[in-house]
Amino acid sequence: MITRPGRLVKLSMTVFCLITSLEKVEAQLKYAAIDTTIRAFMIDRKIPGFIAGIVNEKGIEWSNAYGLADLSSNIPMNMDGIMNIGSVSKTFTTMAAMQLWEKGLLDLNADVNRYLDVKIVNPMHSTKPITVFQILTHTSSICDGKAYAASYACGDPQQSLNNWVRETLVAGGRYYNGGDNFTASAPGQEQKYANMPFGLLGLIIEKIAQQPFNIYCKHNIFLPLGMENTGWFLQEIDRSRHITPYAYVTEEDKAELLANRRLYSDQAEFKLGTFVPNCLYSFPNYPDGLLHTSVRELSFYVVALLNGGELNGKRILKKQTVEKMLSLQLADNTHQGLTWHTRALSDGTNLWGHSGGDPGITTFLFFNPIDKIGVITFQNAATGGTFPLIVNKLYNLAKPN
């Protein structure tokens, strides 16, 4: 019997579809156990919605969404829902800086004032230069003064990044507050996690690139990676797809919620045992934590990192630069890379990544560059415990036997 070419093609396609379907079924069965864990975690931690994804060097291996993105409209969480991702944003600011470093336009060890038209120094150590390397390793001696927390407000920022940095970090500025944005330690002397330095880094990128920081990121990171619905400002994204951040009102945190009432609607009643929606807020120091994206688009970023800085033939960083970011940078420090840091799983395995937390949101992005497995989680509530209870289990389910 003669088999026609057309029949062979159809047979091959049928076999391919069958294999693909079996792989999907196998993946769902493999991760079925995590569904119960996540749902129990959501109930225990009072979380309206949760999204989890496993990423490998090819893309998303498994994902699932749980609960609601908006309680009042009964909108379910989904992979394309957009949310501000907190301090995971710092890794994008770092990528932008390292792109300029690759081109020889940014010296990580130079005084930051080389790139500015104002002078920024720690007033208690005015002869000690502050460097980009120190910013990337949280050793710059710049910290979060009173102005930082007070700067959160509904809507997009109402002042430029340039103006914000001048007013907070330059002596005599409106928010300088006697230098409370600086620690008593000298630059390079002590590691202390801080957000403010990344606003300064964003401004340095603006000055070197000669364009606004958000625009630079769009054309040099987001669009090359296919992150078309990602942006630093609300005006850059589809707000109808934005996940609503929530606070759960308890006796312990009610006073703090009321103190930050400006981040909630005027109709918010803050009744005990209820969820109160935050407004879609911002802050002028935005390069430290205000990126808005989805789990799906964030997975493109992870795939590029797992493939040494390249996705679909488009290179955003050299492989050696990615390796530099994901390597220990400080003596007597076992976790700090360039912004990225390691965190140990229960079996001692170290993952590289970053977490994010802000009013009404918690995010995690961690991966192993050796076995090329990554974990992403989004939740529209500010709560702890996600890494040991969820990220750890997801990675252990995904890793090779």
TrEMBL record:
<dbReference type="InterPro" id="IPR001466">
    <property type="entry name" value="Beta-lactam-related"/>
</dbReference>
<protein>
    <submittedName>
        <fullName>Serine hydrolase</fullName>
    </submittedName>
</protein>
<dbReference type="Pfam" id="PF00144">
    <property type="entry name" value="Beta-lactamase"/>
</dbReference>
<dbReference type="InterPro" id="IPR050491">
    <property type="entry name" value="AmpC-like"/>
</dbReference>
<dbReference type="InterPro" id="IPR012338">
    <property type="entry name" value="Beta-lactam/transpept-like"/>
</dbReference>
<keyword id="KW-0378">Hydrolase</keyword>
<dbReference type="GO" id="GO:0016787">
    <property type="term" value="F:hydrolase activity"/>
</dbReference>
<feature type="domain" description="Beta-lactamase-related">
    <location>
        <begin position="34"/>
        <end position="384"/>
    </location>
</feature>
